Amino acid sequence: MKISFIGGGNMAGAIIGGLKQKGFNTADINVVELDAAKRAQLTEAFGVQATEHLPSVVNSDVIVLAVKPQQLRDLAIFLASFLKQQLIISIAAGISCAALSRWLNGYSAIVRVMPNTPAQIQAGVSGLYAAEGVSMEQREQANLLLSAAGSTLWLDDESKIDAVTAISGSGPAYVFYFIEALEQAALELGFDPEQARSLSLQTFLGASKLASQSDSPAATLRSQVTSKGGTTERAIQSMEQANIKQAIIQAAHAAAERARELGEQLGKD
């Protein structure tokens, strides 16, 4: 399988790095990137071919569109004349399969993907949706690529991509935000910055690992830590009074709504 990435940013690098770790022959990977420094970096790090010439994608089996959403329309219009039977994978947030197909002159072998930043360490999760023109073999190709960066979740409804964006796409920022707060609390309680960082990160790592390996829901695991009349109960009561859980839920809904808005704005032409 020959793969071309158009755009050589962090997410493209994450997927390529994962493929290399899984033993994929990176000589079969081509990256189209205008920035010469990025091209050199990708070639040195992964052994891929890197070029600034878009027509180089013509002989690929899979073309991954890894550019900013604002750049996708012009790219797709130019790319349309080079397409034969390639699978198009788009990781551009907000752009629907219908809009992308329209810009590609009706081409429909499109898989839309929402990955997240832990893909950079092959610990991501990606939501995928396949348009009607995607064959079973092409679904398997898409799954191979994205599973190199972490786990995959196939969706039967494209609108759920906006929800994936709100939960796992934006989700790492919510976690980092909470870590920031916990570190700040540790500093205020007398720890130095290194200690505050270590305590906060290891708590998140350990709790996440426990949750991932347990059959119990998160609410049960939380209750097991929360002894009646104890310190954790006092902390949880404070969070409940501040309505933190509902604020997080509302934040996720706000992110999903913004994803829908961006899709409508960027895909209307």
Overview of this structure, please?
By secondary structure, the protein is an alpha/beta fold. The protein folds into two domains: 3-158, NAD(P)-binding Rossmann-like Domain (Rossmann fold, 3-Layer(aba) Sandwich), CATH 3.40.50; 171-260, ProC C-terminal domain-like fold, CATH 1.10.3730. 54% of the residues lie in helices and 13% in strands. It has helices at residues 10-21, 36-46, 69-79, 97-103, 136-147, 160-169, 171-188, 193-213, 218-225, 231-241, 244-266, and strands at residues 3-6, 29-32, 49-51, 62-65, 87-90, 110-114, 124-130, 150-154. An eight-stranded mixed sheet has the order 3-2-1-4-5-6-7-8, sandwiched between helices. Helix 3 links the parallel strand 4 and strand 5 (87-90). Helix 6 (160-169) crosses helix 11 and helix 7 (171-188) crosses helix 8 (193-213).
Task: Briefly say what this structure is.
This protein is of the alpha/beta class and 269 residues long. The chain contains 11 helices and 8 strands. It starts with a strand and ends with a helix.
Task: Sum up the structure in keywords.
single chain; 269 residues; alpha/beta; Rossmann fold; ProC C-terminal domain-like fold; eight-stranded mixed β-sheet; 54% helix; elongated
Number of DSSP strand runs: 8
Unreliable runs: none
State the separation between the terminal residues, measured CA to CA. 33 Å
**Major pleated sheet:** 8 strands, mixed
Oligomer: single chain
Shape-level CATH architecture of the largest domain: 3-Layer(aba) Sandwich
Q: What's the average pLDDT?
A: 94
The helix/strand class is alpha/beta
Read across the widest sheet, the strand sequence of neighbours is 3-2-1-4-5-6-7-8
Estimate percent helicity: 40-55%
Strand content of the residues, in percent?
5-15%
Counted up, domains total: 2
Number of helices: 11
CATH topology of the largest domain: Rossmann fold
The H/E string reads: EHEHEEHEHEEHEHHHHHH
Per CATH, the superfamily of the largest domain is NAD(P)-binding Rossmann-like Domain
Tell me the overall shape: elongated
Whole-number radius of gyration? 21 Å
CATH structural class of the largest domain: Alpha Beta
